[in-house]
Structure formats: C-alpha cells, structure tokens
C-alpha cells in the first residue's frame, strides 16, 4: 500500500486537462544510352539514365504490403511447397479436423459491466453494490479494466474513488493496473508520474512493474532511467527478452547506437533468443545510416538468423529488403546521398522554423499567441507523435464524401499500425452537421490525440510545431505545399534544408475514393541533387516535354561512373 497524499503530480492521476486537446481512447524503367557507329575505345565513363533506386520498394508506412510471386516485381519470391512442414500446413490440417464441440469448456465470467466513461463517486459506489463476485471489487475491476485496455480517464476516476475512501491511499495492485493502461495508451507523462510515486515509496518492485516502467519510460526524455531499471532487475534475476527489446528500441529511438549494440551483445551473452521485433528495429534504423561498421553488424544478424533457423515475418523481410535497397543506384550500385537530415541539420532547421515561422511568421497566420501557447502545453503533455494529420485538409481530399467519414477512414487505417497520431482540426468540426457527424468524430478522438483550434486559426504553424517537436522520425499528412512558410525562412540554405526535410516527411494519399483501399505514396530515401563519390556522378535532369513546377524535383537520373 502507498499513501499518495503529498506526492508530486499525484493529482494528475485523475484530473482532466481543461483544453480541447484530446488523447486517444487509447521505379522508372532504365534507359541505356549506347553508342551508334564508331566505338570509342578510350571512354572513361559509361552513360546510363535510370532511377537511383527501385521505387517499387515497399514503404512500411503505407497500407499493408503483400509479397508477390514474381521476382521481378518485388524482389521477394514466395515458395510454398506442398510439404508437411510448409508454413500454414498445421492450420489447414486443424481446419479439416475441427475439435469435438462436446469437449469445449465455456468459461463463466462476471457480468458486471465495465464503465466506458469516468464515473462519479456515487456511480462507483453503485457499481460496487451490484458486484456479485467473491473477490475484492477494487482489485477485480482494476484487473478487468487493465485486461480490456480501458481509457486512462476511466482508470483515473477509479483511483480517485479509491483514494477518497482510503485517506489518499491506493494499493500497489491498482497502481500497477493504472501503469499498464498508461503504457498501453502511450501516456508518457502519466507513466513518469507513477514512476515517481513508486520510486518514492518502494525500494524494489516485482518484475511486471519493472517491465511496464521500462516500456513506458523509453518514449520519454528520461529514457536512460529505463536502463537503470534494467540494472535493478539484474540484481535479482536475468532480465527478460522483452526488457532487452524495450531498452534497445529506446536507445535506437534516441539515436544512441552504441548503447543499442551493447545491449544486443549483452542479450546474446545471456543465451536469450532475441525477439524478431528487436532485429527489425536495427534494420529499420539502418536504412538511414551510411556506416560500414553498422552494415557489418546487420550482416551478422542475418547470419544469426541462418545459424539459429529463425525466419523473419513479412514485415521484417521488407525491412531487410528496404535496407539493402536504400540509397543505392540500381545502375552502378553506389550509395547516393540520403534525404534524411543529419542531427546537426535537423536541430538547425528546427530552431529556424520555431523562430522564423512559428514565432515570427505573423504575416502568414491568424493564430493568436495565447492559442499557440495552449497548443504548446498540449504537445508537451503528449508522447512524441509518429504522424501529424492536417484533419481539415485530409477530410477534403475526398470531395464526394462526408468530411468526418473521410477523416475517420484515414485515422482508422493508421491506428491499426499502432502509430502515435495527432489530428489537428478546427472547432467547427465538432459540431453536428451534414458534413461532420459527431459519432464519427468521437471515433477519431478515441484513436488519435486531437487538438481543435479556433475556426479563424491557420493549421500549418501547429502542424510544423508538432512534427518538428516529435523528432526526426515524425511524418505529416497534408496537401499543403507550405510555400509561404518556406518563404519565411531567412536564407537559401535554410530553405533548401526545409525542402529536403519536407520531401522526406510529407506523406501523400494516392487513392481518391473513400471506401476503397487507401494507399500512402511513399517518401523517397535519397536526395534529388547532383551528387558525386569521386569515381561516379549522379545527376537528376528534366525530361523533355515534362513541365516541372518550382516545388517539384526531376524523376530522371544520369548515372556516370568511371570504367575500371
């Protein structure tokens, strides 16, 4: 048991925030130019035009990819031999021989309904009176809420009720229940609050609580404290594979590559079998790195898969494929410059955007300083986002459909990929109308964080702030090309960096009819700029008869490389 009175941030456990910032209820063909007539035996360069990489490479952020049978289409071939050991054979056999229904055991469950919204003290009293189970009601309802991933607000109301009945005391089991719900919904600030309470009251925790705290802390700026928790576990027992996986993912998320590899070596030294998610994380991170040492370690992972008869899943297989293809010219095989900004470039651009677009771009926005301050506080209270969505812009991408329906379809698709989403909108989107249905907008709010600005406000400053503040991994969805904001930047260097960042982070929706399979057009991994490696040149050029706008880049490339 722990007394919560007087502990810092305790009230955050159940006080709702009074703003309209809502958390979620949780390739071109290659053209070879050859000589006609006399052949020059002294040529130093061969000349080709081609795409710098296979643009059919799967973008893992798009709708679920599928493996195809033709090798020339996707580079991966399915082999399904009619074997006893073929993948899926056991399931097919079980379907042919269903179990006898007479031997099926039905488990009886308590019929006490779980609340779907925060309850008052009186409502909790009534629910407890109606409880017919044998065990403690508070522990039972807490366990059920944790198992069913109830919303954080509902869990807060339970803790508030229990604390009020027990002079501010909440039991350890309920704290762990609340921690589990906060981790599931990625409520990082709440995880930190519970962590502070537990650290103040307990000298040690049981493995389940350590695991939850590690998984929750890796998404915060205090992620290194998760490593200390890992050390605490080692004092008692060998940490689990999941513990190592979470810490490795946290190190990669925060760009500490050496720490990630050290944890990998430590995991292997404990004779633990790594999770495939851990291996996939190394490859996903590697596609943005041009480093021979890192590449060598990824090849070691492939040998590890071979030596231990481990088989990657489809998503992992595509991550491996993307790493092999990322940033390579399909003609000469040389690596081309990536589209991704270096950490120094990113920090430089972030500072310039905050200063010259967010704070100083008054001529391009109608947002009040007060509202921008409210939004900044909202963003600080949320974990880093994976995708920021211009809600009004996305909703109008499907002119024949209802706006709220269009927005809901896009959000639902992304939410299924377990991405941390932010939807930016206007307050009128919450009012019932023929174009905006309340029930559909409520479903949007359950799957994504939402912030609704005043109707006269401009969305772009909010979108730029949230995306840049979340880190270099965060992408955004809008049809707005942001030329006005680019013009706000003070010099040509900063504008080039902004355009480079924009091309690597702005997602586009390819399908145009709601109800159809929505597909996101991938962002390229390479920078479209004249490049050289000393013995090769890659030159993007404008194709004849193709008009290119100032905000577009060429799609044709000239590949020149010195003959050996």
From TrEMBL:
> Which Gene3D superfamilies does the entry link to?
3.40.50.11980, Tetratricopeptide repeat domain
Leading EC class: hydrolase
Which metal ions or organic cofactors does this protein require, according to UniProt? Mn(2+); Mg(2+)
In short, the EC number is 3.1.26.5
- Main location as per UniProt: mitochondrion
Question: Where's it found, cell-wise?
Answer: Mitochondrion
UniProt entry tagged with the keyword Zinc: yes
What GO cellular component term, any one, is given? mitochondrial matrix
Residue ranges annotated for the PRORP domain, each copy included: 325-559
- Carries keyword Repeat? no
Q: Alphabetically list the UniProt keywords.
A: Hydrolase, Magnesium, Manganese, Metal-binding, Mitochondrion, Nuclease, Transit peptide, tRNA processing, Zinc
Which processes are annotated in GO (biological process)?
A: mitochondrial tRNA 5'-end processing; tRNA 5'-leader removal
Tell me which family the UniProt entry assigns to this protein.
Belongs to the PPR family. P subfamily.
Write down what this protein is called.
Mitochondrial ribonuclease P catalytic subunit
Lineage of producing organism:
Eukaryota, Metazoa, Chordata, Craniata, Vertebrata
């Amino acid at each position: 048991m722990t007394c919560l009175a007087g502990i810092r941030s305790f009230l955050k456990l159940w006080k709702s925030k009074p703003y309209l910032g809502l958390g979620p209820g949780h390739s071109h063909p290659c053209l070879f130019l050859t000589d006609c007539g006399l052949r020059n035996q002294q040529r130093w360069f061969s000349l080709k035009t081609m795409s710098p990489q296979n643009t059919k490479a799967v973008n893992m952020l798009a709708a679920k990819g599928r493996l195809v049978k033709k090798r020339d289409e996707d580079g991966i071939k399915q082999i399904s031999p009619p074997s006893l050991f073929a993948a899926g054979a056991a399931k097919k056999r079980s379907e042919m021989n269903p179990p006898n229904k007479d031997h099926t055991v039905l488990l009886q469950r308590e019929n006490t309904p779980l609340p779907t919204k925060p309850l008052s003290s009186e409502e909790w009293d009534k629910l407890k009176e109606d409880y017919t189970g044998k065990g403690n009601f508070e522990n039972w309802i807490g366990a059920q809420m944790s198992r069913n991933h109830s919303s954080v607000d509902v869990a807060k109301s339970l803790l508030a009720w229990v604390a009020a009945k027990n002079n501010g005391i909440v039991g350890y089991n309920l704290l762990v229940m609340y921690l589990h719900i906060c981790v599931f919904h990625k409520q990082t600030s709440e995880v930190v609050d519970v962590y502070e309470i537990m650290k103040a009251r307990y000298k040690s925790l049981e493995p389940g609580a350590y695991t939850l705290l590690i998984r929750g802390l890796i998404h915060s700026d205090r992620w290194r404290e998760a490593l200390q928790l890992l050390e605490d576990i080692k004092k008692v027992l060998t940490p689990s594979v999941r513990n190592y996986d979470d810490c490795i993912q946290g190190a990669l998320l925060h760009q500490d590559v050496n720490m990630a590899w050290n944890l990998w070596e430590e995991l292997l030294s404990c004779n633990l079998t790594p999770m495939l998610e851990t291996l996939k994380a190394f490859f996903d991170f590697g596609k943005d790195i041009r480093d021979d040492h890192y590449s060598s370690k990824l090849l070691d992972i492939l040998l590890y898969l071979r030596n231990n008869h481990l088989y990657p899943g489809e998503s992992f297989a595509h991550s491996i494929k993307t790493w092999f293809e990322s940033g390579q010219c399909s003609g000469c095989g040389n690596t081309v410059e990536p589209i991704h900004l270096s950490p120094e470039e990113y920090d430089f651009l972030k500072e310039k955007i905050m200063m010259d677009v967010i704070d100083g771009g008054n001529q391009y926005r109608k947002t009040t300083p007060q509202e921008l301050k409210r939004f900044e506080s909202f963003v600080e209270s949320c974990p880093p986002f994976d995708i920021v969505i211009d809600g009004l812009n996305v909703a109008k991408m499907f002119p024949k459909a209802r706006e709220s329906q269009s927005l809901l379809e896009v959000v639902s698709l992304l939410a299924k990929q377990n991405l941390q989403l932010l939807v930016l909108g206007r307050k009128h989107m919450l009012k019932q109308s023929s174009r905006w249905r309340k029930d559909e907008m409520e479903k949007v709010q359950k799957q994504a964080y939402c912030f609704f600005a005043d109707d006269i406000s401009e969305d772009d400053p909010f979108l730029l702030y949230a995306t840049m503040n979340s880190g270099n991994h965060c992408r955004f969805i809008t049809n707005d090309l942001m030329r006005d904001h680019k013009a706000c930047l003070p010099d040509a260097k900063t504008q080039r960096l902004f355009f480079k960042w924009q091309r690597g982070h702005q997602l586009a929706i390819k399908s145009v009819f709601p109800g159809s399979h929505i597909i996101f057009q991938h962002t390229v991994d390479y920078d479209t700029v004249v490049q050289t490696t000393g013995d090769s040149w890659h030159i993007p050029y404008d194709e004849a008869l193709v008009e290119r706008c100032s905000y577009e880049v060429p799609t044709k490339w000239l590949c020149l490389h010195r003959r050996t």
